[in-house]
Amino acid sequence: MRSLVAFLCLAQLLSHAAARSHPLLPLRDPDCDDPDVELAAMEITQHVNSQLQSGYKYRLNQIDKVRVYPRRPAGEVYVMEVDMLETTCHVMDKTPLENCTVRQLAEHAVEGDCEASVLKMDGQYKVLNVKCESNPDSAEDVRKVCPQCSLLAPLNDTRVVHAVEASLAAFISQNQSTFYKLLEVSRAQISPIQPSVYVEFVIAPTDCGPKGADDPSSCHPLTDQYGFCKGTVTKKDGGEDVAVSCTISVPLVPAPQPDEAVPTPAAAEPDVAIAAGPDVAVAAKPAIAAVARPAPVGPVVRPVRPFISHLPHHDLRHSIVGVASLESASGEHGPVVGLAAPAVPGAAAPGVPLCPGRIRHFKV
């Protein structure tokens, strides 16, 4: 019995000594507008946009929550919640994110909510996991801002599908160079005032002539070339008016380096505007020397078939197709592997963080 008591006492002494030599590290609750936190939030935003397969790019709007955990053997993990807003730039558009305009409330804005873990090590940030969803602003809020504004409509609504088909047919009928295929229905709004439908959709030029082929499925989209289109179909007595404009994006030749031969300048991305009706006009910008734009972060894969969602927008919940390595965090915000434990009882409590952070655009 004495031996057992002595053994227990020895175990307690050893445990106490180990605790003193390896004190538990406290977690940290920084302000949501802390510069390091903002850098982590920007990394989340870039990562989300790099993973999107459909719909539009998002920009950071607000940082809601943040907590920082020490990570063994080095680094820190930022566990965060951020809000983002949909922009007018499609995910296949090569326009840099900072040049993309946030879609306004009157256009029926869409907000994205994300939870993510970001590893900071040696001054570098890496997204470990991310989980997002997105929702349009409520109809009531849109009506408060603009009573006559059109609301988002389901992308598979029969009126929407017809408007896309009619707009694409009008574009192809006036284009004399190639045959285009529909890749995605991106956005749709139905006017509450007049019987008209507004649509945004993505097309791609193919290797077929302007009239296509006997079997359109044999026409293959050209690599890294897209058309971003906006169309409006308005009902009238005895028929309908169709107005459509498309911006065709083609690969650009990078600027030559000083020690390289100067190649023939590539044509700039043309803006082709087509209005279907009594007077049909086709206008294009003259060719000028092109400047290469930065490519979007991460791979963007075209859908094999036209993507038409039953929702009124492309939900981030379904659009993000992958996450970075989960080496230090679980995918469901469970216990974070490799992190130091919270502070021991009695340790000094951290100050109250200033969260949520500032709003960069507007609140949805």
What is this entry, summarized?
The protein has about 375 residues and is an alpha+beta fold. It has helices at about 1-20, 35-50, 140-145, 160-175, 315-320, and strands at about 55-70, 75-90, 110-120, 125-135, 150, 180-190, 195-205, 225-235, 240-250, 270-275, 280-285.
Question: How would you describe this protein?
Answer:
By secondary structure, this protein is an alpha+beta fold. It folds into two domains: 24-147 and 313-364, Nuclear Transport Factor 2, Chain: A (Roll); 154-255 and 265-311, Nuclear Transport Factor 2, Chain: A. The protein has five helices and eleven strands, in the order ααββββαβαββββββα. The protein has helices spanning 2-21, 35-51, 139-145, 158-174, 316-319; strands at residues 56-70, 76-90, 110-121, 124-136, 151-152, 180-190, 196-205, 226-236, 239-249, 271-276, 282-283. The strands form two sheets. It has a seven-stranded antiparallel sheet with strand order 5-6-7-8-9-10-11, with helices on one face. Strands 1-2-3-4 form a four-stranded antiparallel sheet. Strand 10 and strand 11 (282-283) form a beta hairpin. The longest helix has 20 residues, at 2-21. The termini are far apart. Mean pLDDT is 78; it is low at 261-304, 324-337 and 341-349.
Write down the CATH class of the largest domain: Alpha Beta
CATH architecture call of the largest domain = Roll
The tally of helices reads 5
Q: Name the helicity range.
A: 10-25%
Identify low-pLDDT runs: 261-304, 324-337, 341-349
Q: Report the sheet-strand fraction.
A: 25-35%
Instruction: For the largest sheet, list the strands in their spatial order.
Output: 5-6-7-8-9-10-11
Subcellular location: Secreted
InterPro entries: Cystatin_dom, Cystatin_Fetuin_A, Cystatin_sf, Kininogen_Fetuin_HRG, Prot_inh_fetuin_CS
Protein name: Alpha-2-HS-glycoprotein
GO molecular function: cysteine-type endopeptidase inhibitor activity; endopeptidase inhibitor activity
